[in-house]
Amino acid sequence: MPTRRSFLATTGLVTAGVLAGASSPLAAGEQKPAKHVEGPHELPRNLTLLSIDQGDGAETLGVKMGAGVLDVRKASRLLSMPAPLTLEELLKSGNASGLNRLIEAASHSAKAKVAWLEESKIRHGRLFTHPGKIVCVGLNYRRHAKEIGMKEPRVPPLFNKFNNALAAHNCTIPLPPKEIATKFDYETELLIVIGKAARNVPEAEALNYVAGYCTANDFSARDLQLELPSSQWMIGKTLDKFAPIGPYFVSADLVPDPNNLKLETRVNGEVRQSWSTSDFIFNTQQMIAYISKHWTLEPGDIIFTGTPHGVILGYPKEKQVWLKAGDEIVSSIEKLGELKFRLA
Ligand code: MG
């Protein structure tokens, strides 16, 4: 286990004594270093968070509550209270108490009333813009391995996506021209969000390192993914916006068993995948233990955990009708919400 000092050093948080400030909004693509917060590195608890596209280039935190959605940036400014302004800042700074103080104050302040928004009026931003790593696990459901005629793997097959692939709830994925790819397919997946630096973590402790979970889609171009006999999967997985995530980040305490969640995919209203994470070959704990044996997982890193059967690739050849511009895809996972996106 890393010491607190070495942990802070590896996550770049050694700037002692500075509170995460309610400073200027983050412009698109700008990476603000997370600041160290005095006190323990806290994981978010009892929180359902989303990202608000502010329309000025900033994608900042919203907190979903009974009363609506709290615009964290606006409340922080109105009340002059510092708080993490993005999910990544929250996870990297470990300043959950700063956010909780702001929520508490905004719940009882007439001044902060205008910071409460109606969820239906929010334009969603990306929950993640600069994760340190996007790790993907392939072939992780028993029936899915069977449908595409592959043997169950001995260890989790890993590949990756890059940050260019990250996309928001309600986004439009621009499909590449026909010369590049034509065989587009959905993969609804549980996304694990890491909250604490994890290195060589035993299975029994692995869930302690999880900040929360999201609904995600490992959108894929099968012709690129399977172009080489040696299976260079990555190229078919990380085209621009091929990793929509959302609408929510749900803290881990609200999801007691990530290995028993129902998942569903609908294409233009038709159910295509309907299964459960209970069919995982490698469960959440095993994935984290295996990955952290090879490299350090850090706060804000995300893990795509594989998709169940029902993908187009698994259909008999004559029934494979690939996704096309105009299609609307919905990925839903129990407790985590419905991710929607369309193709253009
Ligand atoms: Mg996948």
Describe this structure in words.
The protein folds into two domains: 231 residues, Fumarylacetoacetase-like, C-terminal domain (Fumarylacetoacetate hydrolase, domain 2, Alpha-Beta Complex), CATH 3.90.850.10; 74 residues, no CATH class. The strands form four sheets. The protein has a ten-stranded mixed sheet. The longest helix is centred in the first third of the chain and has 12 residues. It is of the alpha+beta class. The N terminus is likely disordered. The radius of gyration is 20 Å and the shape is globular. Helix content is 16%, strand content 24%. It has seven helices and 19 strands. Bound molecules: magnesium ion. Magnesium ion binds next to loops. Magnesium ion (MG) binds next to loops.
- Looking at the structure, what is the overall shape? globular
Low-confidence stretches: 1-31
CATH class of the largest domain: Alpha Beta
Approximate strand percentage? 15-25%
The CATH H-level superfamily of the largest domain is Fumarylacetoacetase-like, C-terminal domain
Instruction: Enumerate the distinct ligands.
Output: magnesium ion
Protein traits:
alpha+beta; Fumarylacetoacetate hydrolase, domain 2; 2 domains; 10-stranded mixed beta sheet; 5-stranded mixed beta sheet; 7 helices; 24% strand; globular; disordered N terminus; binds magnesium ion
Compact overview of the structure:
The protein has 344 residues and is an alpha+beta fold. 16% of the residues lie in helices and 24% in strands.
What's the topology here?
Blueprint: H1 4-10, E1 48-53, E2 59-65, E3 68-71, H2 72-79, H3 87-93, H4 96-107, E4 116-117, E5 134-137, H5 142-147, E6 158-160, E7 166-167, E8 171-173, E9 184-185, E10 188-194, E11 210-217, E12 220-221, H6 222-225, E13 243-244, E14 249-251, E15 262-267, E16 270-276, H7 284-294, E17 302-304, E18 328-333, E19 337-343
